[in-house]
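Practice problem 4.
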């Protein structure tokens, strides 16, 4: 197989910062926070997975756009409080 052209189906690196970082961060954080909150309310029960998945989808729909707005603001704030190297 050496010498054959292989297709690279990876996404462009330019997407990493503005789109993929908030996407994966919002998926991970909203899953974790909604799971903890759902466990506190329902406990481990038969309906936990359904209740958690509903809470996760709802929280992710808020978290992703919020991160798209917040990350550039946070980067500017960090640039102001950190000394350049």
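Answer key:
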């Amino acid at each position: 197989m050496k010498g054959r052209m292989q297709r690279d189906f990876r996404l462009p690196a330019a997407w990493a910062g503005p789109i993929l970082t908030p996407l994966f961060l919002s998926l991970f954080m909203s899953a974790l926070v909604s799971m903890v909150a759902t466990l506190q309310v329902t406990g481990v029960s038969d309906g936990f997975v359904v209740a958690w998945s509903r809470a996760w989808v709802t929280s992710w729909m808020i978290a992703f756009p919020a991160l798209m707005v917040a990350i550039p603001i946070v980067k500017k704030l960090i640039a102001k409080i950190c000394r350049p190297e």
